[in-house]
Amino acid sequence: MTWRTDEYKKRLERPLLVIGAGGIGCELLKNLVLSGFKNIEVIDLDTIDVSNLNRQFLFRKEHVGKSKAEVASAAVKEMCPSVNIKHYHDSVLSDTYDIKFFGRFMMVISALDNKKARYHVNRMCLAARVPLIESGTAGYLGQLSVVVKGRSACYECEPQVIQKSFPGCTIRNTPSEPIHCIVWAKHLFNLLFGEHDPDDDITPELESAGTSSEEAESGTATKISTRKWAEDHNYDLHHLFDKLFSSDIKCLASLTDLWKDRKKPQPLSYNDVLEQGEGSSGTESLKSNEVWSLRAWVNTFDESLARLRNNMKTPEGEPDKVLAWDKDDEDAMKFVAAAANIRSHIFSIPLKSLFDVKSMAGNIIPAIATTNAIIAGMVVVEALKISNSQFDDLKTIFINSQPNYRGKLFVDTHPQVPQKKCYVCSDRREVAIKLNVNKMTVKQLETKIIKDHFCFVQPDVMETKTFQIVISSDGDTDASMVKKLSEMGISGGSQLEVDDFVQQFGKLYINIVNDDELDEDDFDIVDDTGDTEETRKRRIDEEAASESKRVRVDGDAPNAMEV
Ligand SMILES: Nc1ncnc2c1ncn2[C@@H]1O[C@H](COP(=O)(O)OP(=O)(O)OP(=O)(O)O)[C@@H](O)[C@H]1O
Ligand SMILES: [Zn+2]
Fold first, then answer.
1. Under CATH, which number does the domain 6-159+366-413 receive?
2. What is the pLDDT of residues 166-224, one digit of tens each?
3. Which residue's alpha carbon is at the smallest distance from atom 29 of ligand 1?
4. Does the Cβ of 387 fall within 6 Å of ligand 1?
5. In the chain, what are the domain boundaries?
6. E strand residue ranges, 139-247
7. What would the mean pLDDT of 154-172 be, rounded to a whole number?
8. What is the predicted pLDDT for the residue at 380?
9. 17 assigned binding-site residue
10. Which residue has its alpha carbon closest to ligand 1 atom 22?
11. 125 Cβ closer than 6 Å to some ligand 1 atom
């Protein structure tokens, strides 16, 4: 590369898009302007939080609450006034950023923190034929890779690992680890204060626990909506506490089969706690990294419940506000930590500090500024190669947790070649999915499979034999969302064609394999390789005979940052 020639400088004037102005993004923007890139656009949907200040060094205390994209752009413009920098305080998933928008850039650099946005950017760059540098860190680990259509593997060439969550019955009936109680408490938060989601059910699962329907009906845990129940009781602490921690638990404890090999839970009533004495002082002085007493957690439950209830209130006559779970909302966090620890106590599970619960509930891996800085530095090296059309020299870079056989933590390799059967960047975009057509609804197909698993943004889905439109992005099919797939004429052997009006990376064909054993929201990726019909069938038979790979995907899947 020839440095500092006019031609070199000219190349750096071509526009470049940075997506994400967080940990990596701040370092990166600084590096880019100091390296001579002159026309930069940056998108970030978020505002600055106090917790960002320790590492996102372009931000100061007075910027808290302001747009990350805006403040980061202004800060680097100050470092290098000759740079043209444009910001968008917005989600990259918005259809404003279409193929034409992406097509304007010499390259795109992704400094994101979630799979959905990363997959979307990968697809948009492939469709617009713009080189992408994809970067990520997770604690001391870091990686960057370059995606150039036809030359290197795309971000989705490696089959994705399906995030497993905990079976519903473990959460509702038989928790054995702190995380099970934390997931339960997050569901409770949503049920009481958040948006309704049937997957957040927390009532004991009597039928699957082997009770007769008579027992289930006579049990105290009959299925009425927890929200409705709480509203009817005016969110009264005493009532709520006794339902969640005493009567529901008594009901579970009465299912003797469940406790043959496990310790039976001990119901805890509000009066039991009061009788234990132990004082009732406030919890402000307690340290967040220490494990508090049961009484302190009950006080915390009490205080946070009252505050959250208050936060929901709206002027007379208007419906209550819906609260969203956020690990950085102190009341929400304390409520979940308290509910989780009280439940842990009942099930003889070790209690956890507020700090630990926050890490687990927020799936937090500590962000390390140095890892971000190294990766952001290396991104610029690759960006300079792209600007100079040195595509053969591009590298994939890893920062590992253990030295490799050469004693190196910091490793570069040649980019992988594109996978011939990648359902995103190859010509064969076909997968087979095992599900229960008689139980799964169109809504579950859309949410769990099409949007959460395959990360489509505005999908249209059609059955290819009958041309029946199953899901329409313009809302025409909303009325049939509650229907089972079989009611829409979908059966084993059906093929669905999925198209996304925003992503436009090509149509994905999903071959349906029916399995009557699966629950309504369970599914298996039977084959994501795009093999021929014959090979696929043989493999499906072999897989059916081998151990089941059943998974359940839901919102509580541990969602470690991807690198
Ligand atoms: N769909 C999206 N569109 C635009 N920006 C996004 C999108 N999704 C995530 N981001 C941004 O990507 C950035 C990722 O940065 P980072 O991993 O440092 O996360 P953070 O939210 O700043 O920090 P932390 O998660 O550790 O609190 C964030 O600033 C986030 O707002
Ligand atoms: Zn690919």
1. 3.40.50.720
2. 767 788 889 999 999 999 999 999 989 987 666 666 777 655 444 443 444 334 444 45
3. 22
4. no
5. 6-159+366-413, 168-206+226-276+287-362, 430-543
6. 141-147
7. 76
8. 98
9. no
10. 22
11. no
Annotated ligand binding at 114? The verdict is yes
ipTM of predicted complex: 0.97
How far apart CA 237 and CA 235 sit, in angstroms, is 6
Ligand 1 atom, smallest distance to 46 CA: 31
169 is catalytic: yes
> Which ligand has the shortest distance to the CA of 52?
1
Ligand 1 pocket residue status of 455, Cβ below 6 Å: no
Residues 30-83: tens digit of each pLDDT: 999 999 999 999 999 999 988 899 899 999 999 999 999 999 999 999 999 999
Length, in residues, of the chain: 563
Q: Which tokens belong to 233?
A: 């009781």
Q: Please report the pLDDT score of residue 277 as a whole number.
A: 65
Q: Distance between CA atoms of 102 and 532, rounded to whole angstroms?
A: 34
Helix axis angle, 369-387 to 23-34, nearest 10°: 40
Residue 118 CA: which ligand is closest? 1
Q: What is the pLDDT of residues 432-475, one digit of tens each?
A: 999 999 999 999 999 989 998 999 999 999 999 999 999 999 88
Question: Does the Cβ of 69 fall within 6 Å of ligand 1?
Answer: no
Rounded to whole angstroms, what are the CA distances from 168 to 87, 309, 441?
A: 43, 27, 18
Which residue CA neighbors atom 19 of ligand 1 most closely? 22
CATH for the 430-543 domain, from 2.60.40.1930, 3.40.50.150, 3.30.450.40, 3.10.290.20: 3.10.290.20
Q: Measured from the CB, is residue 92 less than 6 Å from ligand 1?
A: yes
Contact status, residue 466 vs residue 496, Cβ threshold 8 Å:
no
Q: Which two tokens stand for residue 148?
A: 């150039």
Whole-angstrom distance, CA of residue 471 vs CA of residue 476:
8
> Atom 31, ligand 1: which residue's CA is nearest?
46
Q: Which atom of ligand 1 is nearest to the CA of 561?
A: 17
436 carries a ligand binding annotation: no
Among residues 26, 80, 125, 169, which one is catalytic? 169
Answer CATH for 168-206+226-276+287-362 from 1.10.260.40, 1.10.10.520, 1.10.3120.10, 3.30.450.20: 1.10.10.520
Taking Cα atoms as reference points, which of 252, 246, 307 lies closest to residue 274? 246
The CA-to-CA distance between both ends of the chain, in Å, stands at 29
CB 155 within 8 A of CB 420: no
